[in-house]
Amino acid sequence: MGLFRLLFWVAVIFAAIWIWRRYIRGPKRPSRATSGEEASPMVRCAHCGVHVPQHQALELDQRWYCSRQHLEQGPQTGDR
């Protein structure tokens, strides 16, 4: 009977510690991937090749550019 009583109190203490730790930490926050924010598609600058989010890029003649300056300079010519 003494062993059962000891095991019972050990289980109660462990359960209390577990509940207390969960209470201290608070509710889990959702991760960025599940928070409903969708990632914007990335596009490649036709001049320098840098990838930028599509909503920040500038489009001309079905080509994307990372800045107004690169848009004005046009696509890069060369061995790319």
Describe this structure in words.
This protein is of the alpha+beta class and 80 residues long. It has one domain (2-28, 40-73). It has helices at 2-25, 68-73; strands at 42-44, 51-53, 58-60, 63-65. The strands form two sheets. A two-stranded antiparallel ribbon has the order 1-2. Strands 3-4 form a two-stranded antiparallel ribbon. A hairpin with a 6-residue loop joins strand 1 (42-44) and strand 2 (51-53). The N and C termini lie far apart (82 Å). The model has no long low-confidence stretch (mean pLDDT 85).
SSE map:
Layout: H1 2-25, E1 42-44, E2 51-53, E3 58-60, E4 63-65, H2 68-73
Antiparallel strand pairs: 1-2, 3-4
Short synopsis of the structure:
This protein has 80 residues and is of the alpha+beta class.
Walk across the major sheet and give the strand order. 1-2
Number of contiguous helices:
2
Biggest sheet layout: 2 strands, antiparallel
Rg (C-alpha, Å): 29 Å
* Protein structure class: alpha+beta
- Compressed to H and E, one letter per element, the order equals HEEEEH
Shape: rod-shaped
Task: Kindly state the percentage of residues in helix.
Answer: 25-40%
The poorly predicted ranges are: none
Report the span from N to C terminus. 82 Å
Roughly what fraction of the amino acids lie in strands?
15-25%
Number of distinct beta strands: 4
The total domain count is: 1
Mean pLDDT: 85
Brief descriptors of the model:
80 residues; alpha+beta; two-stranded antiparallel ribbon; rod-shaped
